[in-house]
Every structure is written in structure tokens, then in C-alpha cells.
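C-alpha cells for chain A. Residues wanted.
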């Protein structure tokens, strides 16, 4: 007999899981289908969490190397890096988090979690092929597609050869390579280049554009480029990869600059991180009116596809591709489907951190984006070289920029580069999301000495700042 549900959710990542749990908690009969081995998606198994576990090891290693500056005498010599132990720690955290997610899901009686693949037969019926056992059909009143995204490989000969890997494989390398060529200086390419360079790997980072991190404030991206060079990352801009060839125990990456000159870089591994595309294959979307391309499924302002009753959230609907964005969409969609008044997330108030070294924090609009959107703006800059907390921590280096509207003094964007900046981006998001003024920010008492103080100190720099919120 065909099983019937109120809602089918396809994909158990940060996009699919929250909406499934919230709807089931409100007594909707929900089927959540995940084709991987556990709940958590790219974020848990191949993205945010494994990359931040490696980042944590890299940052601790950097701190140990600077111990003498802080009056700590460790035995001389370079600390030994046990790559297998780093990978084992990562696996333990991943297992624990996946188990926790499953345990939580199983506390909700109306939520049926199945592992397997799902293909839509029509807008209200799907075939579920479980990881073990016979396929069977299910019926549902509505469905939510949250199948995420996957790496796109560059269309050059040699891309995809053995030793030419993507972020899906990099966290499980058998050993730490001696050299690595990273193709693509987006957030993932930058983060991984700096992590591996900190581990002592010879890293060459090739970027086709004329700067790294296209979506980041230009001045901040330039500042990071300089720091990367100091950390030993060989950053090559204007490098268009033309071919990858095997050589000995690694590969040569051939590339050209805009003048047409040919160059090459060698790596024991080549890591291709040139973008991501929506996972729409084998879903049976052709049996529905859903419209999509490689950038994502087309949705309207309430995340409904061209097929009424079929919704999509997270990476599968395209940029911005962040875990917190996917889960924010997911939770708002749940409230919407439950008939509650909601406001869907808007990119203009999104916040994000790039876990570069030092970190980059972004909330709301950059100077360029704000001008493009027609705002008359001012920008206030706070230099971390004068910041008490940054000096105490030995990282008195970095910049905080607050973009605000000229007439109203409303905060439109916060963009920063600095060690530890990740921890204060929640406040930046709050300032942008709530549209608070520079005067209100200046009046808020921030504890001393913390990095969060930088917001108030930046607000005090506004020339016309009057202390009336
Ligand atoms: C290396 C890396 C680092 C990252 N770091 C960060 C970070 O620090 N912070 C941040 O916010 N974001 C980060 N991201 C991005 C983040 O991982 C994604 O934005 C987020 O996972 C998107 O969530 P999602 O639920 O839309 O998709 P996913 O997490 O990709 O989940 C989709 C799920 O759907 C399942 N699925 C796909 N097809 C089917 C099917 N046919 N049937 C059943 N199940 C299916 C997949 O197995 C997967 O589990 C990073 C990404 C990468 C690659």
C-alpha cells in the first residue's frame, strides 16, 4: 500500500532538516529522505565542519609557533603534525554530530526519516529507493527539495584525473601532501590554501580573476592577499588553467595569463574549487513543472517552484550558498507552511564569515553594493592596530568598516578582517538586520577588553555622532 504523508522533504542537510523537524513538531506527517549515510549534508560531512576542524588545528599550530612571544618556552623544534590524528578527530566530531541529529529527529513521532534516494513520479507521488530493501511509492500533499550543491570541475583536459581532487575528497587524504595546487580563490580555496600552508604544505593558489574572493569588500580582499603571501601561499592572479597532466607522484597545472604567456605549477595533489552547482539530477524534476538550470531551481519570494505545492530551499536554489542561509530559509518556510506570518531572508541582511587567516566577516552591503543599490553612504573605519583586545591577543592587525546611510545613519553593512572577527559577526548581523543607527551603536555598552568593543569605537568615530538613539 502507498504510504501517505503531508510533506516530503528531500535532503537532510541544513536546508532540509530544520523544516522537516519544525513541520513534524507541529503534527504534520513528514517524510525526510537523505541519500547519504547520515543527517547533516555537505555542511557536516564535506563542508563547514570538517574545514573548521582543520582550521582549528592550523590555528593552534600557529599559536604554538608564536609561544615564545607570549613568554612560553616550549622545547625547541617544530611541532609534529599527525595528519591521521587530525582526520580521526574530524571523523569523531562528524559521527557525534550526525548521531545527535538523528537522535533528535527520532524524538519527533510525526517525522519519518529514511535513508535512500527519491525520484518524483509526478508532483504528488515519488519512488523511494531505500539504502536497503525494495523501492516503494509514497504520496504527499507538498514537497520541499533541499538537495544542496556539488563541486563543479573546470572544463579543461586533465580535470578529474587521479590526484586532481575536489573539496569532497580533500578532508580524507591518506597523508599530508608536500605540495598542493589549489585552483580557484573563492572562500573554500582561500580557507584550504591557508590551512595547508600552515601545516607546512607548499601551496600554489591559482585564480583566474584579478583579485581573490570576488564577493568580498575589495580593500579587505587585497589586505588578505598580502597576508597570504606572508604566510607562504604562492598566490597567482590572472591565471587561467588550460590543462592538467600527470607527472611522477603528482600533477602539473598549466595556465596562461591575459597576455597569453604560458606557465605551470606542480603539486602532489591538485584541488579544484572553482564553484558549485545545484544537485538536481535523478530527482524526477522533469515529471513536474519545476524549472531549473545548473545555477539552481527557480523559486518565487516564498520559495515555491513553478510547480504549486513544491518548494525548494538552500544551495539547490543558488546563491548565497551558506549553511546558516539554508537553515534560515528552511525555518521561515516551515512557519509559512504552518500559516504563520513570516519574513523570508533577504541577501541584503545576510551575514557570513570566511575562515581565512585572519578571518573575514561580512554582514549586509559592501560599499560597492550599497552605492549600486542607490544608497548615499558614509564609511567609518576602525583599525585593529589600536584595539586593546587585539593587542593583548597579539593580533593587532586588521580593519573594521561600517557602511551607513548618510541621512539616517542606519547601519547598512559591516565588513572586517581580523583574528577572532567571527565571534563578533552576530552583533554585526543584528545591527544590519535591525537597521540600528550609528548613534544607537555608540550608546550600547560593550565589555572591555573585547573585540566587540570595536563596533562602539567605530561608531564614536562618526563625525556628527550625537548620543541620541
Ligand atoms: C568546503 C566547504 C566549506 C564550507 N564552509 C562553510 C562555512 O564555514 N559556513 C557556511 O555557512 N557554509 C559553508 N559551506 C557551505 C555549506 O556547506 C552549504 O551552504 C550548506 O551545506 C547547504 O545546505 P543544503 O541543505 O542546502 O545542502 P547540503 O548540505 O548539500 O544537503 C543536501 C543533502 O541532500 C542530499 N541529497 C541530494 N540529492 C538527494 C536525493 N536525490 N535524494 C535524497 N537526498 C539527496 C545530500 O546527500 C545532502 O545530504 C561550505 C561548503 C564547502 C564545500
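Reply:
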Amino acid at each position: 500500500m502507498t504510504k501517505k504523508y503531508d510533506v516530503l522533504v528531500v535532503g537532510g542537510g541544513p536546508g532540509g532538516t530544520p523544516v522537516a523537524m519544525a513541520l513534524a513538531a507541529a503534527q504534520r506527517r513528514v517524510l525526510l529522505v537523505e541519500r547519504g549515510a547520515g543527517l547533516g549534508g555537505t555542511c557536516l560531512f564535506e563542508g563547514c565542519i570538517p574545514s573548521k576542524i582543520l582550521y582549528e588545528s592550523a590555528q593552534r599550530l600557529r599559536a604554538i609557533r608564536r609561544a615564545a612571544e607570549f613568554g612560553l618556552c616550549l622545547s625547541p623544534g617544530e611541532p609534529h603534525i599527525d595528519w591521521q590524528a587530525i582526520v580521526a578527530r574530524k571523523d569523531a566530531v562528524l559521527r557525534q554530530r550526525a548521531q545527535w541529529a538523528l537522535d533528535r529527529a527520532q524524538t519527533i513521532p510525526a517525522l519519518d526519516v529514511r535513508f535512500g534516494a527519491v525520484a518524483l513520479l509526478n508532483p504528488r507521488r515519488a519512488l523511494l529507493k531505500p539504502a536497503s530493501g525494495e523501492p516503494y511509492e509514497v504520496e504527499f500533499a507538498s514537497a520541499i527539495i533541499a538537495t544542496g550543491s556539488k563541486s563543479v570541475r573546470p572544463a579543461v583536459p586533465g580535470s578529474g584525473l587521479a590526484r586532481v581532487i575536489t573539496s569532497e575528497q580533500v578532508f580524507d587524504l591518506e597523508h599530508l601532501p608536500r605540495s598542493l595546487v589549489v585552483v580557484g580563490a573563492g572562500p573554500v580555496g582561500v580557507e584550504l590554501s591557508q590551512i595547508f600552508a600552515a601545516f607546512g604544505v607548499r601551496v600554489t593558489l591559482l585564480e583566474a580573476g584579478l583579485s581573490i574572493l570576488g564577493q568580498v569588500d575589495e580593500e579587505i580582499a587585497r589586505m588578505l592577499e598580502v597576508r597570504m603571501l606572508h604566510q607562504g601561499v604562492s598566490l597567482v592572479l590572472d591565471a587561467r588553467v588550460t590543462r592538467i597532466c600527470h607527472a611522477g607522484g603528482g600533477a602539473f597545472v598549466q595556465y596562461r595569463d591575459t597576455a597569453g604567456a604560458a606557465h605551470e605549477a606542480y603539486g602532489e595533489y591538485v584541488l579544484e574549487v572553482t564553484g558549485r552547482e545545484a544537485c538536481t539530477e535523478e530527482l524526477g524534476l522533469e515529471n513536474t513543472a519545476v524549472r531549473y538550470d545548473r545555477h539552481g531551481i527557480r523559486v518565487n519570494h516564498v520559495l515555491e517552484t513553478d510547480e504549486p505545492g513544491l518548494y525548494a530551499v538552500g544551495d539547490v536554489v543558488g546563491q548565497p550558498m551558506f549553511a546558516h542561509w539554508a537553515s534560515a530559509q528552511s525555518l521561515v518556510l516551515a512557519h509559512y507552511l504552518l500559516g504563520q506570518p513570516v519574513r523570508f531572508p533577504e541577501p541584503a541582511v545576510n551575514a557570513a564569515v570566511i575562515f581565512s587567516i585572519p578571518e573575514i566577516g561580512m554582514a549586509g552591503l559592501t560599499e560597492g553594493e550599497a552605492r549600486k543599490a542607490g544608497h548615499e553612504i558614509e564609511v567609518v573605519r576602525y583599525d585593529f592596530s589600536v584595539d586593546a583586545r587585539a593587542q593583548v591577543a597579539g593580533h593587532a592587525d586588521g580593519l573594521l568598516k561600517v557602511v551607513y546611510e548618510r541621512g539616517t545613519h542606519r547601519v547598512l553593512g559591516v565588513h572586517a578582517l581580523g583574528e577572532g572577527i567571527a565571534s563578533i559577526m552576530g552583533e554585526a548581523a543584528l545591527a544590519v538586520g535591525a537597521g540600528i543607527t550609528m548613534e544607537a551603536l555608540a550608546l550600547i555598552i560593550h565589555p572591555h577588553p573585547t573585540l566587540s568593543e570595536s563596533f562602539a569605537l567605530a561608531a564614536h568615530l562618526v563625525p556628527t555622532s550625537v548620543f541620541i538613539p
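Residues 2-150+277-337 form a domain with the FAD/NAD(P)-binding domain fold (CATH 3.50.50.60). The chain has three domains: 2-150+277-337, 164-274, 349-459.
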